[in-house]
Specification:
Layout: E1 2-6, H1 13-23, E2 29-32, H2 43-51, E3 56-58, H3 62-67, H4 78-90, H5 93-100, E4 105-107, E5 111-114, H6 129-135, E6 143-146, E7 153-156, E8 159-162, E9 168-169, E10 175-178, E11 192-198, E12 203-209, H7 213-222, H8 227-235
Parallel strand pairs: 1-2, 2-3, 5-6, 6-10
Antiparallel strand pairs: 1-11, 4-5, 7-8, 7-10, 9-12, 11-12
Helix pairs in contact: 7-8
Family: Belongs to the metallophosphoesterase superfamily. YfcE family.
Protein name: Calcineurin-like phosphoesterase domain-containing protein
InterPro entries: Ap4A_hydrolase, Calcineurin-like_PHP_lpxH, Metallo-depent_PP-like, Pesterase_MJ0912
Length: about 240
């Protein structure tokens, strides 16, 4: 089976729809490593789109939980808190309940899905080899798909590798894989980042797509989201 892998959508409907349009005839199911909402101007719309996806395997991210009062947002920076507070106000009851019911960790036969790390699914960032290696003992499958950092990379054979555009990997040993962010990339590339996983071949491909950033920014301006959150979409950081 082929899976479309997305993460950190963050209320960016333009980016999400661009990615799903590309994936529609290429995959049979979807994996999402959390954070459908937060930062962006379309939280309800993004949740509703994700709810329609066939066979979606989805976990909660820290912004998802923060927006529904299930996680303290005091640790977030002021811009993130402002966006979370706004998101919480506009989420409708159905979407709020959907986010509240998400699991923080899902383990399938061949892969595990979390937002942050297997050890600490909604908080920990996996960005260095020491932390990555420690987390290998906290999942039992060959692969673990993560998000949270918004940076495409993977860890296997005791080393971290940054994933380049259209790169294909086929990990031979236990691996942790982050395919970047759909809605707010932070690797200085503003294009939406996502991937395709072929569980029969064990192959993972990272993809990048341009989308209408300006349209998202205009929507953010209309609802008075913080200026830095608007600017960062242009520069991918």
């Amino acid at each position: 089976m082929k899976y479309g892998i997305v993460s950190d959508i963050h209320g960016n409907l333009e980016a999400l729809m661009t990615v799903l349009s590309y994936l529609r005839d290429k995959v049979s199911s979807y994996i999402c490593s959390g954070d459908i909402v937060g930062y962006g101007p379309y939280p309800n719309e993004c949740v509703e789109v994700m709810r329609t996806l066939e066979g979606l395997i989805l976990v909660a991210g820290n912004h998802d939980l923060g927006a529904v009062g299930m996680k303290d947002i005091a640790e977030l920076n002021s811009d993130a808190r402002t966006a979370i507070i706004w998101t919480s106000k506009v989420l409708n009851p159905e979407n709020r309940e959907y986010l509240r019911n998400l699991k923080c960790k899902v383990e399938e036969k061949k892969f595990t899905v979390v937002h942050g790390s297997p050890q600490d699914p909604t908080n920990e960032y996996l960005l260095d080899s020491c932390t990555m290696e420690k987390n290998l003992s906290f999942f039992n499958t060959a692969l673990c798909f993560i998000g949270h950092s918004h940076i495409p990379l993977y860890y296997h054979k005791k080393k971290i590798e940054i994933l380049g555009d259209d790169e294909r990997i086929n990990p031979e040993e236990k691996a942790i894989v982050n395919l970047g962010s759909v809605g707010q990339p932070r690797d200085r590339n503003p294009m939406a980042s996502f991937g395709i996983y072929d569980d029969e071949k064990g192959e993972i491909e990272i993809k990048r797509l341009s989308y209408d950033i300006r349209k998202t920014q205009e929507a953010m301006i209309k609802v008075d989201l913080p200026p830095f959150l608007i600017i960062r979409l242009t520069i991918g950081m």
